[in-house]
Amino acid sequence: ATGGATYLWSTGATTESISVSPSSTTTYSVTAYDESGQYSDTDEVKVSVNAPPTVEAGGNVTINSGDNVTLTATGATTYKWSNGATGASITVSPSTSRTYTVTGISNGCEATDTVRVTVTNTVEVVADAGADQSICAGSSATLTATGGATYLWSTGA
Fold first, then answer.
1. Could you please report the per-residue DSSP string of 42-86?
2. Where are the domains positioned within the chain?
């Protein structure tokens, strides 16, 4: 409030400014008085209380290394993601497992949610026992496997 010598708010406060934290939309009035208290004027101000959005980032996901996944948030008007992206949906291809945080904004109020993207480092293993061989009875054949880090032959070797 400005322009008066003294003030009276509907809360009972008599200061020029007040701080309020209503739990629901509330209208406040202030009456400003001149120095003599003979003249006054009253005005009102409405403080609207908006509920925060209910933001959902979706369930946690697991992807293979090198793959991508689209993450979609719901429940707000606009969105900001922890990787700097904006919008309800983002496509990511993380090289390691990580958690993404999305902040949803509606009516000036914010809420957050997180989604975990787990990256598995699957390696395609293709076992190759080599070409078929023919040997004479009593001879031996050397078999060489490729495609793995360790091997287990049917002979147990």
1. EEEEEE--PPPP--B----EEEETT--EEEE-BSSSEEEETTS-B
2. 6-47, 61-120
CB-CB contact of 44 with 25 (8 Å): no
Asked whether the beta carbons of 80 and 93 are under 8 A apart, the reply is no
Distance CA 75, CA 53 (A): 6
Residue with tokens 């496997």: 145
Residue-level pLDDT, tens digit, the chain, 157 residues: 667 789 999 999 999 999 999 999 999 999 999 988 889 999 999 999 999 999 999 999 999 999 999 999 999 999 999 999 999 999 999 999 999 999 999 999 999 999 999 999 866 677 888 889 888 888 888 888 887 778 888 876 5
